Amino acid sequence: MENSIRITIEQKPIDLSPRRRAMTFDTYEAETPKQKQIKEFLQSFPTSWLVFYGDVGTGKTHLSTALLQDRYKKGVSFEIVKFRYIGIDVRADFSKERQIIEHYYAPDVLVIEEIGKGYNTDFERELLFEIVDTRMEHNKQTIFITNLSRDQFLQFIGKPAGDRITSEAQFIHFNWKSYRQKEE
């Protein structure tokens, strides 16, 4: 909760870091036909669950943030959280576990980043399952971001959550060179 970015309709201006505020569809450099196709798809405001997977620096965070900023302008609330922080928040105060989990049910769109960077414990998988299961029951869009391959991602999160995510999500593979490594 304290480790996440929470945006609600009442908050103006949008509460994103300067780096994230610059991540818009206009600033995304779509150089290949696949990159252009993904950008156009996201600009069409898909409501399905999404899994962005691929190597570091390929624009997964940029495009998810661009999508969220566009949605925010249309009155959609969202939250961005790093996967490992969900477990850290609960471990900090187990008496608030239910309250913390319910916190992640609330936004219209939830982005869970850096899946694969954590302890990969049964505890983390159970927390993720609770969040996934409840968000699915309430038809709330969830976007997952990982540097793992599709198979590694599904293995990391465990079979129960993986089965639900696979039934709902569109997997989008970011399989090009890192923007950060491009020559000037």
Write a structural description.
This protein is an alpha/beta fold and 184 residues long. It has one domain: P-loop containing nucleotide triphosphate hydrolases (Rossmann fold, 3-Layer(aba) Sandwich). Helix content is 43%, strand content 18%. The protein has a six-stranded mixed sheet with strand order 1-3-4-5-2-6, with helices on both faces. Helix 7 (150-157) packs across helix 8. The longest helix has 16 residues, at 122-137.
Explain briefly what this protein structure is.
Helix content is 43%, strand content 18%.
Chart the SSEs and their pairings.
Layout: E1 5-7, H1 18-21, H2 33-43, E2 49-54, H3 60-73, E3 78-82, H4 83-92, H5 97-103, E4 109-115, H6 122-137, E5 141-146, H7 150-157, H8 159-168, E6 169-174
Parallel strand pairs: 2-5, 2-6, 3-4, 4-5
Antiparallel strand pairs: 1-3
Helix pairs in contact: 4-6, 6-8, 7-8
Comma- or semicolon-separated keywords:
Rossmann fold, single chain, alpha/beta, 6 strands, six-stranded mixed β-sheet, 8 helices, 184 residues
